[in-house]
Amino acid sequence: MSAAADSGLLNLRWAQTLVDALAAAGLRDVVLSPGSRSSPLALAFLRQPAIRCQVILDERSAAFCALGVAKATRQPAALLCTSGSAPANWFPALIEADLGSVPLLLLSADRPPELLGWGANQTIDQQQLFGGHVRSFHAPPLPDADFSPAYLQRLAARVLADSRWPLPGPVHLNLAFREPLLPAGDLLATHAATACPSAISVAAPLLMPRPQAISETLAEINARPGLIVCGGADYPPGFADAVSALAAQLDCPILAEPLSNLRFGAHDRSRLCVRYESFLRQPSPLAAARPEWLLRFGAFPVTRTLQDWLRRAGPAVQVVISPDSRWPDPQHAASRLLQADPLEVCQALLAGGGKPVPAGWRDAFAQAEAAAEAVARAPFVACANAAEASENFEGMLIPALLEILPAGHRLFCGNSLAIRDLDAFSGSSDKPLRFFGNRGASGIDGNLSTALGIASDGPCVALVGDLTAQHDLSALAAASGRDIIVVVLNNGGGGIFDYLPVAALPEFERAWLTPQSINLIAAAQSFGSAGERVSSLAEFTASVERALQRGGATLIEVPIDRQASVARRREYWRQVGAGLSWHDLLAKCC
């Protein structure tokens, strides 16, 4: 056998050993993009039956798809691409994975070191390419005849463990190969995956709160007015029941964001507040409510209304619960940080026997929640006449969408105005639904690709704005074979800027609103997806029902009158504030 044949076979055996070890360590999903230098690894993955392979041409889209897979499965997902600029296209997604604590394994193929810096084609310096955005970086030696399978097996176990603990996130493996990359002829055709080696046991610790910290926290909050705030997070199983039981023991409200996944499900939701975006703003009397303590779980809140209310509550004892080393405290208001598993914290506080808040405190929030719910449920909020009732309004469209979705369905919500609309208008139900979003860096890039990754694990709806959809429209090229409905709320550009001071500038439309003229339906159809444009709430619900029954990929465009939508929101806020009794609420909470 020639040296060249030896090199190609060695590359494949080395790659297969690593891939088999990754399978043994628990890797089940890889998203790969075509390329030459990555061929040994690509073939090894494709021939490993324990790992599901998805092929996506665009590395940027592939990375966000892997992000969605990892979110949906709660397990690390891998990426594979060739050398050169290809891995640089992963950067936006891995920044999201870094800030959003999502486990990813990045496998970039590379040229051998003797080519680096000598003008070789498709060769860049890939060492430490992603800097501090990855949890660890490894660049194993080139395959050689004496390579150690034991090393590769432990490297596989280590990188997957690094992606999970102590802070979930991306890990980068840069893997160089010399040519010829693969063996030729019969050797290539007959080489197959071997049996996976025995798994190497890795046991991460469970972060338990210190008993003294729990007793000190209870001493600070017992029998005083306060509440629980639950931001977005991938909470452990059982958290919804535990935090609801804690709220019952303390008899306090829970302000729960949609990405907390507390709004929908069979757990006790009797102390849940989901309309706070309306009743915590002026002129509502609850805008002046001052809690003496706050328990904050998960990410810092999305909406400016709740952020501002927390800022005004700055003197309160703020106990922030974080399951890792990060400090989710951008207002610098935390008085205590409990670095522990949130479920364990809830159970420890429950066992400590917390005392309820003063009578009337929770009643004030329950009264405000009920009043806001009544206004939101009233048909066509702020409609001046029957003709206006045919207009599309996010406050009607979103509840209708959630009502239609079957139990257990997944919904990915895009950033900008869409996530704020979901926060304001989702409501709450005992029907279980699972919500996702990219709130690490909160960009509009890659949102459809992330939803495609989630749809790899089961049917998914993506709720996005028109600019978000256009930003990632090429993701639909990979939508075939997935049950995904993309709902595009098309308000003619960056509608979120209507609520910011820049809306008054003469350059507003050109530089911030940036309305586009793309035909989203035609674009979706060009990628093989069904496309429908609807003009009323009734048409919208019928379109969603058809898409659910049909299966596959569908894009539904809902034109929104932006100015009418802004007017309706403001009228909704006004009606909520006007419907609350200052005298009753001030007596109870202020």
Compact description:
The chain has 590 residues and is an alpha/beta fold. The chain is 38% helix and 15% strand.
Question: Which key terms come to mind for this protein?
Answer:
590 residues, Rossmann fold, 3 domains, 38% helix, 15% strand
Number of E-type strands: 18
Report mean pLDDT, rounded to a whole number: 91
- The H-level CATH homologous superfamily of the largest domain, spelled out, is Thiamin diphosphate (ThDP)-binding fold, Pyr/PP domains
- How many helix segments? 21
Strand ordering within the main sheet = 2-1-3-4-6-5
Low-confidence segments, given as residue ranges, are 380-390
Percent strand equals 5-15%
Q: Whole-number radius of gyration?
A: 26 Å
Estimated structural class: alpha/beta
- Provide the domain count: 3
Annotated CATH topology of the largest domain: Rossmann fold
Task: Calculate the terminal CA-CA distance, rounded to whole Å.
Answer: 86 Å
> Based on the structure given, which CATH architecture of the largest domain is correct?
3-Layer(aba) Sandwich
General shape: globular
Task: Write up this protein.
By secondary structure, this protein is an alpha/beta fold. It folds into three domains: 3-190, 3-Layer(aba) Sandwich (Rossmann fold), CATH 3.40.50; 211-372 and 573-589, Rossmann fold (3-Layer(aba) Sandwich); 392-560, 3-Layer(aba) Sandwich (Rossmann fold), CATH 3.40.50. It is built from 21 helices and 18 strands. It has helices at residues 3-24, 39-46, 59-73, 91-100, 149-164, 186-190, 211-221, 239-250, 276-279, 304-312, 342-351, 361-377, 394-404, 417-425, 447-455, 466-471, 508-513, 520-526, 537-550, 562-579, 582-589; strands at residues 29-32, 52-55, 77-81, 104-110, 137-138, 170-176, 226-230, 254-256, 272-273, 293-297, 317-322, 336-339, 410-413, 434-437, 460-465, 484-490, 530-533, 553-559. The strands form three sheets. The chain has a six-stranded parallel sheet with strand order 2-1-3-4-6-5, with helices on both faces. The chain has a six-stranded parallel sheet with strand order 9-8-7-10-11-12, with helices on both faces. It is globular, with a radius of gyration of 26 Å. The termini are far apart. Mean pLDDT is 91; it is low at 380-390. Residues 430-558 form the Thiamine pyrophosphate enzyme TPP-binding domain. It is an enzyme of class 2 (transferase). Homodimer. It catalyses: isochorismate + 2-oxoglutarate + H(+) = 5-enolpyruvoyl-6-hydroxy-2-succinyl-cyclohex-3-ene-1-carboxylate + CO2. Its EC number is 2.2.1.9.
